[in-house]
Write a structure and sequence with these properties.
With about 200 residues, the protein is an alpha/beta fold. It has a single domain, classed as Dihydrofolate Reductase, subunit A, CATH 3.40.430.10. The protein is about 30% helix and about 20% strand. It is built from 6 helices and 8 strands. The strands form 2 sheets. The protein has a 4-stranded mixed sheet, with no helix packed on it.
């Protein structure tokens, strides 16, 4: 599940405008408060039904700082609508794909390194339900390239940023998608649920 703008940017979507300033990005916090209560309910239920979470290193560190157990009370007090997310993230196993992280500070975290495709394949086989990825653009692109994504949910926020890291690179693998669910909320945020469907068909 990933929040993106209409022009495909996923960088710095959260509440803090300075959470991700890489490459001179200055337009952070673009998703703050834009989804309505129904969208928030969908997001909460998504986190609740996860059996485990998989992150790239950068998203993991952002989430650990905001959602980690030491921050849970603050988050619940400041925004009670997010307490289900905090509860899910702090109670369920977390895996982080990284070659540089050696001592994760968030409890119940396992670092995956070495043969990542094999490790994630084993996790997918072991989990009875969903192994969810949130954010983690580099990891998502790698998972798609290695046919390890079963379903992808895009929360598309009605804004064009004109700068920032995009979910899909300008040059990369082509991929057809089957739309399996679609909804829009009262604020114009749309949720599109896709399943990978091989390569697109091109005209001759």
């Amino acid at each position: 599940m990933t929040q993106v703008t209409v022009d495909g940017v996923m960088q710095g979507n959260g509440g803090a405008s300075d959470e991700d300033r890489r490459n001179g990005f200055e337009r952070g916090g673009w998703a703050l408060g834009l989804g309505d209560s129904e969208t928030m309910t969908v997001i909460n239920r998504t986190y609740e039904r996860a059996d485990a979470f998989l992150f790239g290193r950068r998203t993991y560190e952002l989430f650990a700082g905001y959602w980690g157990a030491e921050e849970r009370a603050r988050v619940a007090a400041e925004d009670p609508g997010h307490h289900q997310i905090a509860a899910a993230l702090n109670s369920k196993p977390k895996y982080v794909a990284s070659t540089t992280l050696s001592r994760p500070r968030w409890a119940n975290t396992t670092v995956l390194s070495g043969d990542l495709a094999a490790a994630i394949g084993e996790l997918k086989a072991e989990q009875p339900g969903e192994l969810q990825v949130h954010g983690s653009g580099v990891l998502v692109r790698w998972l798609l390239d290695n046919d390890l994504v079963d379903e992808m949910t895009l929360l598309i926020v009605p804004v064009v940023l004109g700068q920032g890291e995009r979910l899909f690179a300008e040059s990369g693998r082509d991929l057809a998608l089957d739309l399996v669910e679609s909804r829009s909320d009262s604020n114009g945020v749309t949720m599109q649920v896709y399943r990978p469907a091989g390569r697109p068909q091109y005209g001759r």
